[in-house]
Amino acid sequence: MQAVDEKRVDQIVVYKIDRLKRPLTDFAKLVDQLDAAETSFISVTQSSSTATSMGRLTLNMPLSFAQFEREVTAVRIRDKKQAYEGQHSAVIGPAVWDKVQDMLQSGAAVARGSRQKSDQITSGGQAP
Fold first, then answer.
1. What are phi and psi of 68, to 5 degrees?
2. How many of the other CB atoms lie within 10 Å of CB of 59?
3. Nearest Cα to 46, choosing from 83, 13, 15, 78?
């Protein structure tokens, strides 16, 4: 990168984009550094180049999706680990606002009310 900063390099050619930088934030910093040094880079297998604005756009789109996928995967892994360890409390199950009692009912009360309404409808009656 010292050669880039000294403007001795016009282009950097890589085989694949992910070989250059993995996290999107690091990649964005690198692109800014390359732009400041008037250096572009080209991915041989992915037809991407930072020499044009369209090239930058097409380059940032898959990187953004890759970053999103990594973050979603990390959240899923964390949630599964917490659920396995019995620490998961984010899911409280179904909940319904009871207008008569002016309170939130969840779990068994909701299931019981839903079954009663379903039974009334299937037996030819009307739900309250």
1. -60, -45
2. 20
3. 15
